[in-house]
Amino acid sequence: MAHLVRWGILGAGGIAAAVGADVAASAGSTVAAVGSRDSVRARDLARRVGAPRAHGSDGELIADPDVDVVYVATTHAQHRGAALAALRAGKPVLVEKPIALNARQAHEIADAAAERGLLCLEGMWTRLNPALRAIQSVIAAGEIGEVRTVRVDLSHAFEYDPKHRLFDPEVGGGALLDLGVYPAAIAWLLLGRPDAVRASATFAPTGVDAAASMWWSYEDGRAAQLTCSAVSDAGSTATIVGTEGWIEAAGMIFRTEEFTVCTAAGSRTERHPLPAGNGYGLEVAEIEKCLAKGLTDSADMPLAASLGVLEVLDEVRRQVGVRYPDEEA
Ligand SMILES: NC(=O)c1ccc[n+]([C@@H]2O[C@H](COP(=O)([O-])OP(=O)(O)OC[C@H]3O[C@@H](n4cnc5c(N)ncnc54)[C@H](OP(=O)(O)O)[C@@H]3O)[C@@H](O)[C@H]2O)c1
């Protein structure tokens, strides 16, 4: 039997449980340990994902000799410290989105991984989404002509609580880093790095952005109109407009399973379901594949795209005036 990838989950919150369940369900992986600041929470999640060990600190989890890969599932401001600690201990990392608060931190993480020849990926699982990949095939086949405009919204109304991760500046809250990173990743995937960006935002009482809008423009006339909100349910739509038609994706864009292609010839709908479980199986499989092949990056979820997106989001935050406590003045 092939060697199982032994995961260490760092953080015992919502996404740790969702991804942890898919790790546990994968034939190629096992959850070896869970680490949390709170040992009761660590034990509870360890029990739920079948992990034999629970640790009461990041350090203990990272030092666990039975952990092959560390999955950093904490809040945004905590990604840098945890990822660097794991890499310095010689462990590859999967870091939840966004990989860090800003591009400077992200490059620091990427450099630490490169120095040690270790795998380091952001959990931007949307890049592996089967429907999104099928959309790319439709575009590559020329069905909608040349892509000119990408419009993506990701909005979800969270109940306002200044201590909730979405609204708390101490942990890197804000709609842009939490939700806007998905529309940005999709625009990057379909159009690449913009030549110019214009942004605006509205703010929560804590000072982080409650909603943000970005206009990415390209010197050849292409554009992306990207929006996100943590205070309204705006429908979460994506439309990719080409010179000879358009594609509309259905449902929450980061986990879309269906899209419609509209051209002069008519329209058709394609359905590409996510894997069973919570949908993170492809991300788990990608880590398994990269580790088995000794890769330090993923062709489908490349670190360069994670870094590039954060560089653009830095500029957006500069324009709208959102700065986190950990960031230099
Ligand atoms: N891929 C996806 O679909 C998806 C979906 C939702 C969220 N996310 C991402 O996953 C990450 C965590 O989100 P979540 O929804 O799991 O959040 P959550 O339920 O609030 O959990 C966040 C975890 O961060 C840890 N943490 C460490 N230091 C902290 C601090 N100073 N304050 C608060 N928490 C701290 C906590 O772990 P302990 O207390 O256990 O140590 C906590 O359980 C974020 O990067 C988010 O953007 C991804």
Structural overview:
Helix content is 34%, strand content 25%. The chain is globular. The longest helix has 18 residues, at 303-320. The strands form two sheets. Strands 8-9-10-7-11-12-13-14 form an eight-stranded mixed beta sheet, with helices on one face. Strands 3-2-1-4-5-6 form a six-stranded parallel beta sheet, sandwiched between helices. By secondary structure, it is α/β, with parallel strands linked by helices. Helix 5 runs antiparallel to helix 9 and helix 7 (175-191) crosses helix 9. The chain has helices at residues 14-25, 39-49, 58-63, 79-88, 103-116, 130-140, 175-191, 281-293, 303-320; strands at residues 5-10, 29-35, 53-55, 69-72, 93-95, 120-122, 147-155, 196-203, 209-217, 223-229, 238-242, 245-250, 258-263, 266-271. Bound molecules: NADP nicotinamide-adenine-dinucleotide phosphate.
Describe the protein's topology.
Elements: E1 5-10, H1 14-25, E2 29-35, H2 39-49, E3 53-55, H3 58-63, E4 69-72, H4 79-88, E5 93-95, H5 103-116, E6 120-122, H6 130-140, E7 147-155, H7 175-191, E8 196-203, E9 209-217, E10 223-229, E11 238-242, E12 245-250, E13 258-263, E14 266-271, H8 281-293, H9 303-320
Parallel strand pairs: 1-2, 1-4, 2-3, 4-5, 5-6, 7-10
Antiparallel strand pairs: 7-11, 8-9, 9-10, 11-12, 12-13, 13-14
Helix pairs in contact: 4-5, 5-9, 7-9
NADP nicotinamide-adenine-dinucleotide phosphate is lined by residues 11-16, 36-38, 41, 73-76, 78, 96-97, 123, 125, 165, 171, 178.
